[in-house]
Amino acid sequence: MGTIYTLFSFVGDAGFYFFPVFVGYTAAKQFNTSPTMALFLGAIMVHPALIQMAVEGVPFDVYGIPSSVQIHSGTVLPIILVVWIMSYVEVFLKKVTPDI
User: Fold this and answer.
1) Could you tell me which residues are beta bridge partners of residue 66?
2) What gap in Å lies between CA 76 and CA 10, rounded to an integer?
3) Could you give the CA distance from residue 23 to residue 77 in angstroms, rounded to a whole number?
4) Each residue of 10-42: pLDDT tens digit?
5) Maximum Cα–Cα distance for the chain, whole Å?
6) N or C end: fewer C-beta atoms under 10 angstroms in the chain?
7) Alpha carbons 45 and 72: distance in angstroms, whole number
8) C-alpha to C-alpha distance for 37 and 10, rounded to whole angstroms
9) Is the pLDDT of residue 1 over 80?
10) Is 32 helix (H, G, I), strand (E, B) or coil?
């Protein structure tokens, strides 16, 4: 195929590939939490290193707690759940951290 097809493919796939970033922003607005942090969390879900780990099946653990690495580009539910949980964490942290 030609280069114009490749360009159109990039443009068409970009919206779906970065879907967690866009959904994270709108979920943050709905849950009255920080949109910047939600964008950050959505970007983590589509990070190339994380996707590479999922493709290769590399084991991943945090402090000895195993985690299964999944590809979340183009998904909706994981980012909505993460932002929902983040809204409660943010409220808690605002209570316990001092104002500057």
Assistant:
1) 61
2) 20
3) 9
4) 888 888 888 899 999 999 999 999 999 999 999
5) 59
6) C
7) 6
8) 26
9) no
10) coil
Nearest-angstrom CA–CA distance, 58 and 43:
20
pLDDT for residue 72: 82
Q: How far apart are the first and last CA of the chain?
A: 57
Quote the tokens at residue 24: 């994270």
The tokens of 20 are what? Answer: 């967690």
Q: Which of 13, 34, 41 is nearest to 87 (CA)?
A: 34
d(CA 80, CA 55): 23
Q: What span, in angstroms and rounded, lies between the C-alpha atoms of 38 and 45?
A: 11
Neighbour count for residue 85 (Cβ, 10 Å) = 13
Position 75, amino acid: T
